Each structure stands twice: as C-alpha cells, then as structure tokens.
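Possible regression after last week's pipeline update?

I re-ran a chain I had predicted before the update to compare outputs. Posting the input and the new output here so someone can diff against the archived version. Not blocking, just want to make sure nothing changed silently.
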Amino acid sequence: MTNAPTSPFKTPVTVALTGASGAQYGLRLIDVLVAAEHEVWVMISKAAHMVIATETEITLPAQPERLAQALSERSGAAVGQIRCFGREDWMAPVASGSGAASAMVICPCSTGTLSAVATGASNNLIERAADVAVKERRTLVIVPRESPFSPIHLEHMLTLSRLGVVILPAAPGFYHHPQSIDDLIDFIVARILNQLGITHQLMPRWGEDQSPTSSFKDE
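New output (post-update):
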C-alpha cells in the first residue's frame, strides 16, 4: 500500500469572487494566501469578471486553467499552488463534503450570492461550495459589499450567522491611520485572515505599535 502524495503547500483555502464591488479585496486575499504558502482554490463568477475589468486594470481569462496561470503569474504562486474551477465543475473537491477540507471565503459577496447561500440554492459551484461549508460546519467567511442593506439582506445575514457563518462586511476602519487605498484593503484582508486563523503582519492589532508590513506566516 502506497501513501498518497503530500502537498508542498499548507492547508487549502477556497476564495470565491462574486459580482459585488470590491474585487480588490478578493484579489489581495489571494496574493496574501499565496505568500503565506497556502494552496488556494479560486472561483470567479461571470459578474465578478466584469467587476474586475471595471474596477481594476486587470483582465482575467474565464477558462480555469488560463485563469490559474494568470493569477499565479500575478501573485508569484508556485506551480500548482492556485487551482481554479468553473461555475459548473461539479467534480471539483469543493462540490462535495468528501472533498479535501478547506475553509472558504466569498470576497466580495454579492447580495444575490448571499441570498443563494442562505437558502441553499446551489445553482452554481460557488453556491454549492458554500452549501458544503455550511453543512460540514467548516469555516465560511462572507464579505458583503452593499450599502444600504435592505431587510432582505439583513435577514439572510442573520440566517447565516446563526448557522456559524462569519459575516464580515467590507467596511474598513480608520484607527490605523491609513495612508492609501491599499491600507484600507489590507484592513479587511487582515480581518479575514484572523477568522481563518492565519497570522499576519498586514497591520497591527489594537493596542500594538508597529508599522504594516507585507510578510506573512501561518500559525
């Protein structure tokens, strides 16, 4: 009996980008996870591709293999560190509870995706992966970016919060005296990393006196 090959990377984290504003948060999160030597499983919705093209100067291909290559080149990922899945790739590990365990972050999360996850719709792989995370009681962090929130949005957030999902709105603070948009982005990414249990030095914790840096390490 031969042992299964071990991954050279730390535990995988699934990152899904959907069609809300704030694509920069999700792209930065991928970069940080790569720097922290985690394997990153990525899903980008069709609407998210449009948002990325609108909000950034980045153009990403839709085909999963080409997308993985483009993200790897952008983040400096090692070969095989980033894996991308299409919206109906039902053989992807994230589609089943028997797949490899992985925390999941939907960043940014559109209110449409929020609704689908709250109701268990599972109409595409992102929604199904989130449904798996909920039913398997894995860490799921949802980063909504909408203003104002309607009662429908708030009810869906409450439903998911009661199921153990972390609702982490993209609402950066200012007590760390941000000097750039990148500092505001890192504020939210740092909060996501805290929920994943991944230590970082993106910004000091409350009460600490240190300058933001770009080095990361896993606990």
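Follow-up from reviewer: compared with the archived run. The domain at 10-196 is CATH 3.40.50.1950 (Rossmann fold). Marking as no regression found.
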